[in-house]
Gamma carbonic anhydrase 3, mitochondrial
Amino acid sequence: NNEESSLVLSASSSSGENPHFDFISLINANQSLVRKMGTMGKAFYNVGFWIRETGQALDRLGCRLQGKNHFREQLSRHRMLMNVFDKAPYVDKEAFVAPSASITGDVHVGRGSSIWYGCVLRGDANSISVGAGTNIQDNSLVHVAKSNLSGKVLPTVIGDNVTVGHSAVLHGCTVEDEAHIGASATVLDGAHVEKHAMVASGALVRQNTRIPSGEVWGGNPARFLRKVTEEERAFFSSLAADYSNLAQVHAAENTKKLDETDFKKLLNKKNASDAEYDSVLNDLTLPEDVPKAA
């Protein structure tokens, strides 16, 4: 109703920002309202959801019945944040979630963390917790198991200032603060990566394996390789900070309106001094009073 809508908008604009830009705060506020509803409120909410889904299904059916004469607009149904039954994700307002990422179910993302493009965090069978300042890089998967061979069904817990490399898989495991998971590494159920430890790129950490603090493990299956050097430990900290800063840049770019990006391209085109920039932006139709760069 109108009262609930105004509450959602006021919650998302309390910091003085445009509510249309603060998408994550808007979703969190809406989910908070749903949790506070009584039994009847939740029932009406679910009925409304089913009616909307039914309407979309009828629209698709009607398009198919029209055969070749129909026009169907292809809309993406991707959702950055999605509930699973009564499990709703929570993302801190200072965190960055890329538009193509997917966070589903019982997932908590802490302050200053970044979930990059193509990542999937699926907390449908158990919970996923991501600490502060952690970066989960492109195309990585974080999941939990409803059951496994060991009989230990555990959540996935990722600490503070952790770096998870591109295309890594974390499944029902624990990664402590300031650890480093290399690109394409896999950490399976019950595994425990201690603070300042490193899993090398492409490694497979088997179930219930514990990697002690300050050690580098690699291979398939992963085994001890050597100790982490002081230079590597400093690099892990700086890498987490660099990704936190980079996430702010991407967050700002992703919240821009179309006219803002076009105007920025126009200014860059005016000040461009080489042909390479033109090839990146493609040819733009400029007003007559804005000369092209030589």
Residues 217 and 223 are 5 Å apart (CA to CA).
